[in-house]
Amino acid sequence: MRNKVLCKVTSEEDKQKIKQQIEACQPLLRLIYECCLDDYEKADKVNDEDFKNPNWAYEQAYKIGLKKGLTKLLDYVIINLNKEK
């Protein structure tokens, strides 16, 4: 299980404790992951009406920032894909 979060933990004892917590939190982590993916897809949608908005550039910058933040969050979520939901 290699992840940015676990790379920050130096003690092997602490790593084992965190791995146990991650394993116990799999249902929650899956939901967080799914919510992030849903929000990411919503931010991708552009309607013709959006182009009539005089603040279109600001709205696009917001969406790009949101997508970047969600991407970062997904980097920190540890999901064990080998186990069933």
State the main characteristics.
85 residues, mainly alpha, 4 helices, 0% strand, elongated
Write up this protein:
- The protein is mainly alpha-helical and about 80 residues long.
- It has one domain.
- The chain is built from 4 helices and no strands.
- It has helices at about 5, 10-25, 25-45, 55-75.
- It is elongated and about 55 Å long.
How would you summarize the topology of this molecule?
Blueprint: H1 4-7, H2 12-24, H3 26-44, H4 56-76
Helix pairs in contact: 3-4
Average pLDDT, rounded to a whole number, is: 86
Oligomer: single chain
Ranges with pLDDT <50 over ≥5 residues?
Answer: none
Portion of residues in beta strands equals under 5%
Overall geometry comes to: elongated
Structural class: mainly alpha
Helix content range of the residues, please?
A: 55-70%
Radius of gyration: 18 Å
Distance between the termini: 18 Å
| Count of structural domains | 1
In total, how many beta strands?
0
H/E series, N to C? HHHH
Q: Helical segment tally?
A: 4
Major beta sheet, specifics? none
